[in-house]
Amino acid sequence: MPVFYHLITRQAVHERQVFDFSKGQANWQGKFFLERGEQLPLDALLKTPRLTLTPAQTTQLRNDRDRQKHALRETILEMVRLRDHPNYPSRLACLYAASSYDQALTWRNLFEKEGRHVLQLVQVATNGPTFSGDATLLPATDGTAVSMKLKAAEHYWNTPTPTQQLSEVLLGGRVVVERIVRTF
C-alpha cells in the first residue's frame, strides 16, 4: 500500500485514527466553502440609507467574498470531476496529502506563511481511490471568466503530476493514520 503524508492543523491525532470518506462524507474544505455559514444580511444592509459598515462587518464581508470565490472554484472542479473522472476522489470529500516527506514540508512552509499553524505531520494509508494533481493548475479565484475556470479545471483533472513540488494527493475511502512522523 502506498505511503502518504498529511499535515494536521486543527486538532492533534493519534495512530490508527480513521478519516472515513467511503460514503462521500464532506471534509473540512467542503463544509467551509459550501455550507452556508454566518453571513452578513446584505439585503437589509443595502436598504439602509447612508450605508456604513462597522470594521467587523467589513471584515465579515471580505471573508464572505473570499469564501464565495473559493466555493465557485471548488464547484467548477467538482462538476468537471463528476463529468470526466467520476472514479477520482472528490476534493470536497477526501483527505489532502503529499506523496513524499519533502513535499509535505513544502506544504507546511506554505501553510505557515498563510498563518495556518501545523501541529503534526502524519503518515497515512488508504484503501480508496487517489488522485495526484498539481495545485498550481487549480482554477484562479479572481475575476477570470467561468469558461476559463472550466478549462483550468479540465487541465487540473487531466494532468496527474505526482512529481511537482506543489502536488497534492487526494485520498478517498477509509484513511488511517499509520504513524506520527513529526510534532511541531
Offer a concise description of the structure.
This protein is of the alpha+beta class. It has 5 helices and 7 strands; from the N terminus they run ββαααβαββαββ. The strands form 2 sheets. The protein has a 4-stranded antiparallel beta sheet. A 3-stranded antiparallel beta sheet has the order 3-6-5, with no helix packed on it.
What does the model show?
This protein is an alpha+beta fold and 184 residues long. The protein has one domain: ADP-ribosylation fold. Helix content is 37%, strand content 22%. It is built from five helices and seven strands, in the order ββαααβαββαββ. It has helices spanning 28-34, 42-46, 55-84, 101-113, 146-158; strands spanning 4-8, 18-21, 95-97, 120-126, 130-134, 167-171, 173-183. The strands form two sheets. The chain has a four-stranded antiparallel β-sheet. α1 (28-34) packs across α3. The protein is globular, with a radius of gyration of 18 Å. The model has no long low-confidence stretch (mean pLDDT 87).
How much helix, percentage-wise, in residues? Answer: 25-40%
| Widest beta sheet: strand line-up | 1-4-7-2
Estimated share of beta-strand residues? 15-25%
Give the CATH class: Alpha Beta
